[in-house]
Specification:
7% helix
Length: 140
């Protein structure tokens, strides 16, 4: 039987060439009731990964739909991104929070946050981990 294709070398190349930023993935904790105030409090999230990674914007820009003449609106108001991490990094879970701790080339990444839309992708053949993200805004 022929062994399966090993893409770890390709993953190392992608990590060296593309994953220039330090990424943090944090898992929010469920809110807990404060019995003294009666309010729900949100504990600090648990950091599940901090290390090399890259946040890449979706290649296609959002378009406009014109279902009624003269009444345009954005067809996709969310900004989709992809997170690349090494396959040795833990798999992100749905609703994990992603931030860039240090940005090598683009300082605009700092101070922004993303939410994982689904668990990190898994595959028989994998070079790097890919996780789909949605940028958080003030209402999230």
């Amino acid at each position: 039987m022929t062994p399966p294709l090993d893409l770890t070398s390709l993953g190392a190349v992608v990590q060296d060439l593309v994953m220039a930023d330090t990424i943090r993935i944090a898992r929010p904790a469920p809110p807990v009731l404060n019995p003294q105030t009666g309010e729900l409090e949100h504990p600090a999230p648990t950091v599940v990964y901090q290390g090399p990674g890259a946040v890449l914007s979706q290649s296609a820009a959002p378009g406009l739909s014109l279902p009624v003449a003269g009444q345009p609106w954005a067809d996709n108001p969310t900004d989709r991104y992809r997170l690349l991490t090494p396959i040795t990094a833990p798999v992100a879970a749905r609703d994990d929070e992603v931030s860039v701790v240090s940005a090598t080339y683009d300082p605009a990444l700092l101070g922004r946050a993303w939410r994982c839309l689904q668990p990190g992708q898994a595959s028989t053949l994998v070079a790097v981990r890919v996780t789909w993200l949605d940028e958080k805004n003030g209402s999230d």
